[in-house]
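Weekly puzzle thread! Below is a chain. First person to post its structure in token form gets bragging rights.
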Amino acid sequence: MSLRLSTVILPVDRWHEGGRRKWQRAEELGFRTAYTYDHLSWREPFRDGPWFGAVPTLTAAATATERLRLGTLVTSPNFRHPVTLAKELLSLDDVSGGRVTLGIGAGTNGFDATVLGQDPWTPRERADRFAEFVPLLDRLLTEDATTHSGTHYSAHEARGIPGCVQRPRLPFAVAATGPRGMRLAARHGQAWVTTGDPKVVSAPDATPAASRAAIARQVERLGAACEEEGRDAAELHKVLLTGFTPEPLLESVDAFVDFAGRHAELGIDEIVLHWPIADTVFAADHKTFERIATAAPAQL
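Winning reply:
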């Protein structure tokens, strides 16, 4: 399997003041998929700046592109309900002609966790909600009518007609590092997403080698979860969202090729680069970023 190269475009630009052009440029550069974050706002320095909704942004991107796959990295239950999300995703998949991937995760305790006025959920409650959210969303996107009465979510004759363009539904890319999340990825996912091990990369003495070793352990645990579910782990694409590991991968084409090759050896088959944003943690030389997009795949 060849290594896929994708990007994530944060929804910080007005559509007619640079937003549209970024998505079109992503297609021109040959990225496999362009994702966006699905938050209502995000951490500093973005917290008090422009930030647009993921689904409207992706819908606009679908009408501005032709071949580029589109997706979220990631959607979470923090402010979403499976019934309304399923209808939005079904519509987005239709508008895009079947080019949508849903990245989905359990969420964190950041701003989205309290924006609707609720107290932050504990890690256990987030995991419990996620375990109910994902299979219900799976049903809503594959069944004509769904009724469900659960601990956290309910649906009463929720209609899913005419269904997704992609059959049996649009693919799920499940972000998970713990055992419960990995079992959900093995059971419902077409891909698995990691940003690395937060405990490892946040250490003051974090090294690229330690980060890769942690990712290797995650891939092993994913394989064990797939075995428990009776599924071949090779069926799941393994996606690394970069920007959170201790490696300067955007300094040059050679640096990126080395980074990508080392992670491909671990089993990663899709690498996602943040579209550069000046004066943020995602700052990078844009010309180098574009050279990586166009030149690196041939070397991989």
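Puzzle host: Confirmed. Bonus trivia for everyone else. Residues 209 and 246 are 9 Å apart (CA to CA).
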